[in-house]
Amino acid sequence: MENEVKNPGFKTLQKIQSEVKSSNTIALSVDCVIFGFDENKLKVLLIRSDLKKYQGKWSLLGDLMRSEEDLDDAAYRILKQRTGLNDVYLEQVHTFGKINRHPAGRVITVTYCSLINIRHHKLNILDNELHWHDIDNLADLAFDHQEIFDTCYTRLQKRVQEHPLGFNLLPKKFSLRDLQNLYEAILGFKMDRRNFRKKFFTMDFLIDLKEIEQNVPHRPGKLYEFNYSKYEKRKKKWAGIDF
Amino acid sequence: MENEVKNPGFKTLQKIQSEVKSSNTIALSVDCVIFGFDENKLKVLLIRSDLKKYQGKWSLLGDLMRSEEDLDDAAYRILKQRTGLNDVYLEQVHTFGKINRHPAGRVITVTYCSLINIRHHKLNILDNELHWHDIDNLADLAFDHQEIFDTCYTRLQKRVQEHPLGFNLLPKKFSLRDLQNLYEAILGFKMDRRNFRKKFFTMDFLIDLKEIEQNVPHRPGKLYEFNYSKYEKRKKKWAGIDF
DNA sequence: GCAAAAGTGTTGGAAATACACCCATGT
DNA sequence: ACATGGGTGTATTTCCAACACTTTTGC
Fold first, then answer.
1. In the structure, what pLDDT confidence band is assigned to residue A18 with cuts at 50, 70 and 90?
2. What is the pLDDT of residue B119?
3. Got the DSSP string for chain B?
């Protein structure tokens, strides 16, 4: 914004301030689509709606924004409140602003996608209304949260192919089978094991930890770590026109 | 949002409504990064800032949101006001919400990227403070509009490789040279002419209009049209993991 | 006939795919 | 020993990048 349609003269700050104030009939919220990965399934963290109208339904984790915090900080705050985690992967996805999306009035919501390792925050869930849902088993979410989820999930499917986001969902040490299971869960189809391995070995971003899995009822796989610093150094290449 | 941190009971609509109202100290605006293509250069439409603090600087086209309109509609309204055009390509890109991004107070802005054919709206520009700027010649934009522009431009560079957006910047009938010039302008480097043609002919989305350019001082090129319906029918393929 | 850009094919290398066998471990 | 999944290699195909000459038009 910052401009009115037809106005040859300059505006004073005071003028703008009064416009800003008088336009102030829209509330802003932040909603987080928090993904996790457990038992080879992709999960999303939901909370029971605290709104009577949506009694019994599940909703995304969110809150109204505070006027004195940065937008991104609001998203971090929500994550911290709910999961107790700092330093999680968090990315803004889309802003939803249909007029009637919220029954309490005009609320526009900025949505973020977050990826966390379920094992790292088990504790915070047990006693409240939070629950990890299978992503293929969502039903009847509150508000427009199904649409928001769908948007974030589609974005995740795309992003995970182009950037090494997925490792945020795995423990620091993982086997190649773990990694493939993750990709298959996110993308929704099976891949050839040999070609999958070849792909990642050719990329050369995995550090062989010289350790193997424990307590598996078959030949144990080797464990790896993702080499972020190597990845960061490599310049992105030109991908090519393709549609 | 839609939830408070710790609250076992349900909220009434009235409770939520009062929260929404009391949180109402953030204003919302929409800013549009409007791209055009002329003389083989990528351009962005800017307006002189009407804020004294930014006197002489250029800014993106935007306005405060109205509480009774959909978010997307607000973006369309701004485009319509400024260019007189309906039916333009418009896509939400990102929401910017740093605390001090606007001198008049807390204003969060949702930004949209728009692509228009410059020839179609020449009329609306002449008499006011609008101007098409070369994208490699921007200097000293108002507010955080440089950052917003950069974000939208980067997004455009990526999107144009994966989707047929670019045609929105060209006239309905265009030559392959026009198309290549457009891609080179957006992506910022030269491509091999033969491979470029091969690429688009192989995609098979161009309709040969059996017409040729007029009034060119050399052999005229054939004119084409983009076949949107054919494109829509073709299912997107799996792109592959690549980072 | 000359300048300027259109139009066209081939080839070599890289990457993706499809596919089958042996190996290490737990039971 | 056997069941389970780990680990590996090769042939085929597809896609991309590099590259040069002929054709058509305006002047």
1. low
2. 83
3. ----SS--SPBPHHHHHHHHHHT---EEEEEEEEEEEETTEEEEEEEE--BGGGTT-EE-EEEEPPTTS-HHHHHHHHHHHHH---S-EEEEEEEE--TTSSTTS-EEEEEEEEE--GGGGGGGTTTSSEEEEEGGG----STTHHHHHHHHHHHHHHHHHHSTTGGGGS-SSB-HHHHHHHHHHHHSS---HHHHHHHHHHHT-EEEEEEE--S-SSPPPEEEEE-HHHHHHSPPPP-----
For domain B13-160, say whether CATH 3.40.190.10 is its number. Answer: no
Q: What is the CATH number of domain B165-237?
A: 1.10.10.10
Residue ranges of B 174-193 with Cβ closer than 8 A to chain A: 183
Q: Is the pTM of this model over 0.85?
A: yes
Question: Domain locations in chain A?
Answer: 13-160, 165-237
Q: CA at B242, C1' at C15: how many angstroms apart?
A: 11
Q: Using a CB-CB distance cutoff of 8 angstroms, which residues of chain B are in contact with residue A24?
A: 24-27
Contacts of B106 in chain A (CB under 8 A): 20, 67
Is residue B68 scored above 70 in pLDDT?
yes
The percentage of chain A sitting over the pLDDT mark of 70, rounded to a whole number, equals 87
B34 touches chain A (CB under 8 A): no
173-212 of chain B touching strand C, CB 7 A cut-off: 175-177, 193-195, 197-198, 212
Tens of pLDDT, residues A61-72: 999 999 999 999
Q: pLDDT tens digits, residue range B82-114?
A: 888 888 999 999 999 999 999 989 999 999 999
